[in-house]
């Protein structure tokens, strides 16, 4: 019975319906005027959409079972291993860095816009480093391993990635004067929308949102980010506002002539939990072991994925450059 009760509690916890169910049972809808009341009905949306995606996948005979299986195992593993680490990191960063802020914001709409832009900058920095520093890529690669896109991918993260990400994002925001209360609201919006942009084609086919796609990052943009095509590699690092991708030249729209191929460039078994979760650490360990000298060993840790001590680099920058040079040569030949 205890096992069944635990499974029931975990299922309810996954769908996040406890608070919403209590409100419905009590009939006290006044609570919907509060932050807690509103979020209690927003939190279940993504898990329910995950379930809907799976049902539609079965109906369309596109169940993507390998992706769902591994992502479910990752969710369960992270649930028990890294449950409270990110919360502790955020709390510590607020305590350490708030006294160092040059100024403090106030709870007004214009400061909220400022705070969100700063948050997106912090997100861009963390995300960019996650692709450009090999050690951080080991943390982030689990999220890019699935070879299909659906909402379950939002649960595919190495358990230490959230603490690493929140250390950078929280520190930048707090030092820039963002109030903790405002930060928590932004984190909720960011987490909810950040999950939604992983929606698969079973639910939303094009997902470029028309003219809105010029100002916000859409599921189409994020599908591009998860692609391993040379045209798409290491682009669209933002989460909701694509302002920093445009500012730093990493913005890329989905092209009809370039069908997205999901996954990472390393050969791997995307249906194997151990390979998805620890494979990049194993690959990094092998490179460090085989590298001559301390300097080369260190370079493998801090340089981008694809860097090689022999000079035969296959970083995303090199791969993209070769791709564009090939395209230019083809266009010149055609002309």
TrEMBL record:
Residues 113-250 form the Fatty acid hydroxylase domain. Its EC number is 1.-.-.-. GO terms for molecular function: oxidoreductase activity. Coiled coil: none annotated. The chain crosses the membrane at residues 38-60, 72-97, 109-129. InterPro entries: Fatty_acid_hydroxylase (IPR006694), Sterol_desaturase/TMEM195 (IPR051689). It is found in: Endomembrane system. It is an enzyme of class 1 (oxidoreductase). Keywords: Lipid metabolism, Membrane, Oxidoreductase, Transmembrane, Transmembrane helix. It is a multi-pass membrane protein. Its main location: membrane. It comes from the Bacteria. Pfam families: FA_hydroxylase. This is Sterol desaturase family protein. The lineage of its organism: Bacteria, Pseudomonadati, Bacteroidota, Flavobacteriia, Flavobacteriales.
């Amino acid at each position: 019975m205890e096992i069944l009760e635990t499974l029931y509690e975990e299922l309810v916890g996954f769908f996040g319906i406890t608070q919403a169910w209590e409100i419905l049972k009590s009939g006290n809808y006044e609570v919907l005027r509060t932050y807690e009341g509103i979020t209690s009905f927003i939190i279940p949306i993504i898990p329910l959409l995950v379930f809907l995606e799976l049902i539609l996948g079965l109906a369309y005979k596109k169940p993507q079972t390998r992706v769902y299986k591994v992502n479910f195992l990752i969710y369960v593993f992270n649930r028990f291993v890294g449950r409270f680490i990110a919360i502790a990191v955020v709390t510590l960063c607020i305590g350490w860095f708030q006294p160092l802020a040059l100024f403090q914001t106030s709870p007004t709409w214009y400061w909220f816009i400022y705070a969100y832009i700063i948050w997106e900058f912090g997100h861009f920095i963390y995300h960019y480093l996650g692709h450009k520093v090999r050690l951080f890529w080991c943390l982030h690669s689990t999220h890019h391993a699935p070879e299909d896109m659906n909402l379950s991918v939002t649960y595919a993260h190495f358990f230490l990635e959230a603490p690493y990400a929140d250390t950078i994002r929280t520190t930048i925001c707090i030092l820039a004067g963002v109030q903790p209360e405002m930060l928590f609201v932004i984190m909720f919006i960011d987490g909810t929308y950040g999950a939604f942009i992983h929606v698969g084609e079973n639910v939303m086919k094009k997902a470029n949102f028309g003219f809105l796609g010029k100002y916000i990052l859409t599921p189409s943009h994020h599908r591009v980010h998860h692609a391993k095509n040379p045209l798409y590699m290491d682009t669209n690092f933002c989460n909701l506002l694509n302002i920093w991708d445009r500012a730093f030249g990493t913005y890329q729209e989905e092209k009809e002539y370039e069908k997205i191929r999901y996954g990472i460039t390393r050969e791997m078994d995307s249906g194997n939990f151990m390979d998805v979760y620890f494979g990049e650490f194993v690959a990094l360990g092998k490179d460090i072991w085989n590298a001559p000298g301390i300097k080369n060993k260190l370079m493998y840790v801090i340089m981008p994925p694809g860097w090689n001590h022999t000079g035969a680099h296959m970083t995303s920058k090199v791969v993209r450059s070769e791709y564009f040079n090939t395209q230019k040569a083809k266009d010149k030949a055609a002309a």
